[in-house]
Write a structure and sequence with these properties.
Layout (H helix, E strand, L loop, with lengths): L5 E10 L2 E11 L4 E5 L6 H8 L7 E6 L7 H4 L2 E4 L11 H11 L4 H10 L15 H13 L5 E5 L7 H16 L3 E6 L2 H7 L2 E6 L2 E7 H5 L4 E6 L1 H12 L4 E4 L2 E4 L6 H10 L3 E7 L4 H9 L17
Parallel strand pairs: 3-7, 3-8, 5-6, 6-7
Antiparallel strand pairs: 1-2, 1-4, 8-9, 10-12, 10-13, 11-12
Helix pairs in contact: 3-4, 4-5
Bound molecules: adenosine-5'-triphosphate (ATP).
Protein name: ABC-2 type transport system ATP-binding protein
Pfam family, one: ABC_tran
InterPro entries: AAA+_ATPase, ABC_transporter-like_ATP-bd, ABC_transporter-like_CS, P-loop_NTPase
């Protein structure tokens, strides 16, 4: 393995004339929580299914833990929650896990350990059908954790959970990664990804539009300048930061430049007779970035969404 847990290269899936996944390349590194973020129908599940060897790509290739997705050596080291797991409603959570555990040649102890790991130990004797949605979802993660896999692949693990259930799930996943396991999860919830993921891949209409850390994607190195008169300030700013690095925004200027430019910028503005009213670092929220990248006019000004959910 070359230091990556998952490597997808131009992975593509076509259904008739629909390109569900269009040439997606990404890497997931050991021990990280990688968030695969995109609106409904963007191609997240299809990509995860290809990485698990559940469906065959129409093009491109992928390796998981250094081998072909779905190969027996890989399957033993990957735990997944992609389609809702089929649990027996009349069996207890513990017995459900023991069934799965035996099926995979593991001991009952492995099942009990996984149950404890997701905090369901005390309710392990209750029937599955009496579980809340959050508990069912946690049991699904416990099933994926059976046998301590090196990689956990989870499709929308917090889908349908209430805020407390979501917070529980987030804690659990951060805890899993802290123990050294790698987590690849998909989500359409920005806040969630922002909170728990080390790195993010953003997918829209089948295409990966960005990959990087949350800080990378936000592009923290920008400055907002309010000054008068604005046209003179614009000329000075362009001279210093470059023509393409300055745009008019929010009744001022936005410069793609590092904070180290501020003293020189202010000096030159003042020397040119410009009144400097405000200079500050601009940090875009991941939400703004997301809408900018996935919206109908990529690269245009972001809309101003207020909801945390993007679909
Ligand atoms: N078996 C299939 N046959 C035909 N089209 C499919 C099939 N599976 C997925 N698609 C289409 O591929 C596109 C991507 O679907 P996918 O389920 O991967 O998206 P997603 O990002 O996981 O969305 P969601 O968050 O709604 O699950 C959609 O347009 C979907 O209708």
């Amino acid at each position: 393995m070359d230091g990556t847990v998952v490597r997808a290269e131009r992975l593509t899936k076509r259904y008739a004339d629909r390109l569900a996944v269009d040439s997606v390349s990404l890497t997931v590194r050991p021990g990280e929580v990688f968030g695969f973020l995109g609106p409904n129908g963007a191609g997240k599940t299809t990509t995860l299914r290809m990485l698990l060897g559940l469906i065959r790509p129409s093009g491109g290739r992928a390796s998981v833990l250094g081998a072909r997705p779905g190969s027996p050596a890989v399957l033993a080291r990957v735990g997944a929650l992609v389609e809702g797991p089929g649990f027996y409603p009349y069996l207890s959570g513990r017995d459900n896990l023991r069934v799965l555990s035996r099926y995979r040649g593991l001991s009952d102890r492995a099942a009990d350990a996984a149950l404890d790991r997701v905090g369901l130990g005390p309710r392990g004797g209750d029937r599955f059908r009496s579980y809340s949605l959050g508990m069912k979802q946690r049991l699904g993660v416990a099933a994926a954790l059976l046998g301590d896999p090196d990689l956990l692949v989870l499709d929308e693990p917090t889908n349908g959970l209430d805020p407390a259930g979501m917070a529980d799930m987030r804690r659990l996943l951060v805890d899993v990664a802290a123990g050294g396991q790698t987590v690849l999860l998909s989500s359409h919830l920005l806040a969630e990804v922002q909170e728990i993921c080390n790195r993010v891949g953003v997918i829209a209409e089948g295409r990966l539009v960005a990959e990087g850390t949350v800080a990378d994607l936000r592009g923290a190195d920008a400055l907002l300048l309010r000054a008068h008169p604005l046209d003179r300030a614009l000329a000075v700013a362009m001279q210093l930061a470059g023509d393409d690095a300055v745009e008019v925004a929010d009744a001022g200027l936005r410069l793609d430049a590092e904070a180290s430019l501020v003293p020189r910028l202010v000096r030159e503005l003042v020397a040119d007779g410009v009144d400097v009213l405000e200079v500050r670092a601009a940090e875009r929220s991941l939400e703004e970035v997301f809408f900018q990248m996935t919206g109908p006019d990529p690269g245009g000004p972001p809309s101003a969404p207020t909801a945390q959910e993007v679909s």
